[in-house]
Specification:
about 400 residues, alpha/beta, Rossmann fold, 2 domains, 5-stranded parallel sheet, 5 strands, elongated, TF_GRAS, transcription, transcription regulation, Nodulation-signaling pathway 1 protein
C-alpha cells in the first residue's frame, strides 16, 4: 500500500517527520554488498568437537587470519553485508560462538578463555555482519558466564570489551531517536513493513466481507509497531475499493503489556504515538479512539456490541514460553474475534525452546546473523544512530536465549 500525495496528507508527513519515502527504498536496492567485503575468500573454520570435554580444535592460522580481516574491515568502517550468498562457510562468527557455548557448558574454561580472546579481537559494532554477530554473541555469553561465580573465578580474565560496552536498545533510547529509528527501519527494510502491510490488507478484506452495514472497527494491538503500522490502515479505510462504507468508529486498543516482553516490544519512557495518530485521523475525517489495556480480558478491552473485532499479534508469541503462549491464545479465543493476525519469525519458538543449551544458543545466533545481515543491506553499510538502536534491540534475543537456563555444569 502507498500513500497518495496531496494537500490532505500534510498531517501524516508531519508525523513521519519528512523522513519516509512513500515507496520503501528496499524495493529499489534489495542487496548492497561492498566490493572490499566480497573480495575476501572466507574459509570454513576447522572445528572438531572431541568427546564431551569440549576440546574443540580450531586452526590457529585461521584465527590469526580472521584477526587480520577484522582490522581491514574496521579500517574501511563500512559495515556492509558479508553474506556472500548467506552460506555457512561465510558465517565464521557462529563457528566461533557455538563451540564457545559448548565449552562453557562443559566447564572447559581454558578453551573458553582462548575463544573469548579470539572473539574479543574480532568483535566490533562497526564491522560487517559477522563482526557484529561476534560482538553481540560474545556479549550474551559473557553476561551468562560472569553471572556465575564459578565461571567468573575460573576464567581468570576481566569481562570482554563487548560486555563492558553500552549497547542502545529501545527502552533506553531517547524518544526522538527511538521514533526516528522506527521510521527509518520501516522505510529501508521489509523486516516489519511487509508483515504490517499484509496485516492491514487482511483487516480491509475482513471489512469488505461485511458490506451490509458499516460496523465499528476495534483493533487490539499486541504487536511491536509502536504506531508506525496504523497510518496506512487509517488512510485506506477512507479510500476503500468499490466505495465501501467507512467505519463510524475505529478503536485501537494497545494491549502490549498483556504479552511477555520480547525484542522490539518495549518503548522508552515518554514515548506516545497517540497524539500524532489522532491528529492524522482528524485530518482525514476519521473517527479514531485510542485506549490502552493491561490484559486481554473483555472488561479491560471494553468490547462493544456489533463491532468488528480484530486481534493483531505481531512478533510477540514466538518470544514467549509455551505456558505464556497458551494463556495468550486462550484469552484471544475467549474474545471470539472476527479476525486474528499472527506474525512471527520462523524458528523463534524453537530457539526459545532450546533454552540456554548450546543448541538453543546456536539457533539464536543464526537468527541474529540473518537479522544483522539484512540490516547491513537495508542501511547499505552505513553506520548511524538509528541502525545501532535497531540492531541493539534485535540482539536482545541472543542475550535472552543464553540466559534462560544455566550454561555452567559442575564437574
Amino acid at each position: 500500500m502507498t500513500f497518495d500525495e496531496g494537500a490532505d496528507q500534510h498531517h501524516l508527513i508531519e508525523w513521519l517527520e519528512d523522513s519516509v519515502s512513500f515507496l520503501p527504498t528496499f524495493l529499489e536496492e534489495p542487496c548492497a554488498v561492498a566490493d572490499e567485503i566480497c573480495g575476501y575468500e572466507w574459509r570454513k573454520v576447522g572445528i572438531e568437537i572431541r568427546g564431551q570435554d569440549g576440546n574443540e580444535e580450531i586452526e590457529e592460522s585461521e584465527l590469526q587470519r580472521k584477526v587480520v580481516v577484522r582490522k581491514k574491515a574496521n579500517g574501511k568502517g563500512g559495515g556492509a553485508s558479508s553474506s556472500n550468498g548467506g552460506g555457512k562457510d561465510a558465517r565464521w562468527a557462529e563457528q566461533l560462538l557455538n563451540p564457545c557455548a559448548v565449552a562453557i557448558e562443559a566447564a572447559n574454561f581454558s578453551r573458553v578463555q582462548h575463544l573469548f580472546y579470539v572473539l574479543d579481537e574480532l568483535a566490533s559494532l562497526s564491522g560487517d555482519a559477522n563482526h557484529r554477530v561476534a560482538f553481540h554473541g560474545l556479549r550474551a555469553l559473557s553476561f551468562r558466564l560472569f553471572s556465575s561465580a564459578a565461571g567468573a573465578s575460573a576464567l581468570r580474565r576481566p569481562p570482554s570489551a563487548a560486555a563492558a560496552t553500552a549497547v542502545p536498545c529501545f527502552a533506553t533510547t531517547e524518544p526522538k531517536l527511538f521514533r526516528s529509528a522506527l521510521i527509518k527501519f520501516h522505510e529501508v527494510s521489509p523486516w516489519f513493513t511487509l508483515p504490517n502491510a499484509l496485516a492491514n490488507a487482511a483487516i480491509l478484506q475482513t471489512l469488505t466481507l461485511d458490506r451490509a452495514q458499516a460496523r465499528p472497527l476495534h483493533v487490539v494491538d499486541l504487536g511491536v509497531s509502536h504506531g508506525v503500522q496504523w497510518p496506512t490502515l487509517l488512510e485506506a479505510l477512507t479510500r476503500r475499493p468499490g466505495g465501501g462504507p467507512q467505519p463510524p468508529l475505529v478503536r485501537l486498543t494497545v494491549a502490549g503489556d498483556s504479552a511477555p516482553p520480547g525484542p522490539f516490544s518495549r518503548a522508552p519512557p515518554g514515548y506516545d504515538f497517540s497524539s500524532h495518530l489522532l491528529r492524522y485521523a482528524k485530518s482525514i475525517d476519521l473517527n479514531l479512539r485510542i485506549d490502552r489495556a493491561g490484559s486481554l480480558a473483555g472488561r479491560d478491552l471494553a468490547l462493544g456490541a456489533g463491532e468488528t473485532l480484530v486481534v493483531c499479534a505481531q512478533f510477540r508469541l514466538g518470544h514467549a514460553g509455551h505456558d505464556d503462549r497458551t494463556a495468550i491464545l486462550r484469552s484471544v479465543r475467549e474474545l471470539n474475534p472476527d479476525l486474528v493476525i499472527l506474525s512471527d519469525l520462523d524458528g523463534a519458538d524453537s530457539a526459545v525452546a532450546g533454552g540456554g543449551s548450546p543448541g538453543g544458543f546456536a539457533r539464536g545466533a543464526e537468527m541474529l546473523w540473518r537479522f544483522l545481515d539484512s540490516t547491513s543491506a537495508a542501511f547499505k553499510g552505513r553506520d548511524c544512530g538509528e541502525r545501532r538502536v535497531v540492531e541493539g534491540e534485535g540482539a536482545r534475543k541472543a542475550k535472552k536465549i543464553s540466559a534462560i537456563t544455566p550454561l555452567i555444569t559442575n564437574k
